[in-house]
């Protein structure tokens, strides 16, 4: 069965995470995605290890785990487009592509004749997605931007971490490069919107994506908390600014998360916890009251939750319809029965390791499901194949280009 985007060709000139993440989503949905990399070096994340994938003997390969996270279902070609012949090759590939993704500094590709204006003249249907730290204009446009820096600059770290006055207080970044991931998701949505527009107009367009824009947009309710009050939200650790109780609590053998979303759930929790009177206490009877009296309620709950284990709380509260859950490490995540039932770990054949583990796509389409066609590619693994199929280059011409260092 063909994928939903199997009729599309994508030229992925991006590196690291945000752009490759968008490219992998398109590839999972069936698009033919060609990853253009520097000869002998490749995507920066190929070297971002350890850890590296192990081969059949248990030795490290040159394939970093980081790279393997964002490049499934792609084909890799190596082209040095600092050389004129390399520029010509990439321009010809772009002329046959539907989508191009790049994350070079603003104006960086113009020197090579690979900017949007140049490629649009060659291929008016091309959808050209530029991903940068700060966008194509504004006072920061020329700056480089990395996820960690943007988490700080864009306000996320001001919301993440223990509250002032607590032990270990201070801003903390999210444990994955979340701004990059979100930018990849927004970029994918923008690309699909541009494709829908192209069906109506016949023309492609330029997409200007910025990590900072995405980070600010994803502040969500916290941004609105500030915009409607003028008061910057403060760090609350694992607590929620608008809902109580909605945080972690200690148990007899660790901690668990309690996420009470309404007053009915709170009453059920109180009954299970053996404190039905809390639900009728005017200080706690409504969420608004619980937020106002957070400092009084939370210590009472913490005193009650330590008398059962995490598993016991999850079982009894789950039966009562009160949302809660454990705090799993990744070993526990991939051992979880629901994670296994949903098939979120998969294995793909790999030329060096035999197989490589992957995290499955969360997209479930009934008629055009995601297909896992190939593992993240070796550097330049598909150069000959792509140049022959897309551009009709002969084996002899490809060999000549290798000799002069273009490929």
Question: Can you put this structure into words, describing what you see?
Answer:
- This protein is α/β, with parallel strands linked by helices.
- It has two domains: 9-217 and 342-403, 3-Layer(aba) Sandwich (Rossmann fold); 246-329, formyl-coa transferase, domain 3.
- Helix content is 37%, strand content 16%.
- The chain is built from 16 helices and 13 strands.
- A six-stranded parallel sheet has the order 5-2-1-6-7-8, with helices on both faces. The chain has a three-stranded antiparallel sheet with strand order 9-10-11, covered by helices on one side. The chain has a two-stranded antiparallel sheet with strand order 3-4.
- Strand 1 (9-12), helix 1 and strand 2 form a beta-alpha-beta unit.
- Helix 1 packs across helix 6 and helix 6 packs across helix 7.
- The longest helix has 24 residues, at 178-201.
- The chain starts with 8 loop residues before the first strand and ends with a helix.
- The mean pLDDT is 97.
Brief description of this entry?
This protein is of the alpha/beta class.
Please tag this protein with its features.
6-stranded parallel sheet, 37% helix, formyl-coa transferase, domain 3, Rossmann fold, 2 domains, 16 helices, 16% strand, 3-stranded antiparallel sheet, alpha/beta, 407 residues
Mean pLDDT, to the nearest integer, reads 97
Helix content class: 25-40%
**Class from helix and strand fractions:** alpha/beta
Number of domains: 2
- Spatial extent as radius of gyration: 25 Å
- Main β-sheet description: 6 strands, parallel
Tell me, what is the CATH class of the largest domain?
Answer: Alpha Beta
Distance between the termini: 34 Å
Give the neighbour order of strands across the main sheet.
5-2-1-6-7-8
The CATH homologous superfamily of the largest domain is called Crotonobetainyl-coa:carnitine coa-transferase, domain 1
Order of helices and strands, N to C?
A: EHEEEHEHEHEHHEHHEEHHHHEHHEEHH
The CATH topology of the largest domain: Rossmann fold
């Amino acid at each position: 069965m063909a994928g939903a985007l199997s009729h599309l060709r994508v030229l992925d000139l991006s590196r690291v995470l945000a752009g490759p993440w968008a490219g992998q989503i398109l590839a999972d949905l069936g698009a033919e995605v060609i990853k253009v990399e520097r000869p002998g070096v490749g995507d920066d994340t190929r070297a971002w290890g350890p850890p590296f994938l192990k081969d059949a003997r248990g030795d490290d390969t040159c394939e970093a785990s980081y790279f393997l996270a964002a490049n499934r279902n792609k084909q890799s070609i190596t082209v040095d487009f600092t050389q004129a012949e390399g520029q010509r090759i990439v321009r010809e590939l772009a002329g046959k592509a539907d989508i191009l993704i790049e994350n070079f500094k603003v104006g960086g590709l113009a020197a090579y004749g690979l900017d949007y204006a140049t490629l649009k003249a060659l291929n008016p249907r091309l959808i050209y997605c530029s991903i940068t730290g700060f966008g194509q204009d504004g006072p920061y446009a020329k700056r480089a931007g990395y996820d960690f820096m943007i988490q700080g600059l864009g306000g996320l770290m001001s919301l993440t971490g223990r509250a002032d006055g607590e032990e270990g207080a201070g801003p903390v970044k999210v444990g994955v490069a979340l701004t990059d991931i979100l930018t990849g998701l927004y970029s994918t949505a923008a690309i699909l919107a541009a494709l829908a527009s192209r069906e109506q107009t016949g023309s492609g367009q330029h997409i200007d994506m910025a990590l900072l824009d995405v980070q600010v947009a994803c502040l969500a309710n916290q941004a609105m908390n500030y915009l409607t009050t003028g008061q910057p939200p403060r760090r609350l650790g694992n607590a929620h600014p608008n809902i109580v109780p909605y945080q972690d609590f200690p148990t007899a053998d660790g901690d668990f998360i309690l996420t009470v979303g309404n007053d009915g759930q709170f009453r059920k929790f109180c009954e299970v916890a053996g404190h039905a009177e809390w639900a009728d206490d005017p200080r706690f009877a409504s969420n608004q009251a619980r937020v106002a009296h957070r400092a009084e309620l939370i210590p009472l709950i913490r005193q009650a939750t330590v008398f059962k284990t995490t598993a016991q709380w999850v079982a009894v509260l789950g039966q009562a319809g009160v949302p809660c859950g454990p705090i799993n490490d990744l070993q526990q995540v991939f051992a979880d029965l629901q994670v296994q039932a949903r098939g979120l770990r998969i294995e793909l054949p790999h030329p060096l390791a035999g197989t490589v583990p992957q995290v499955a796509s969360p997209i479930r389409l009934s008629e055009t499901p995601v297909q896992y066609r190939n593992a993240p590619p070796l550097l330049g693994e598909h150069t000959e194949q792509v140049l022959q199929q897309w551009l009709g280059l002969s084996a002899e011409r490809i060999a000549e280009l290798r000799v002069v260092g273009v490929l």
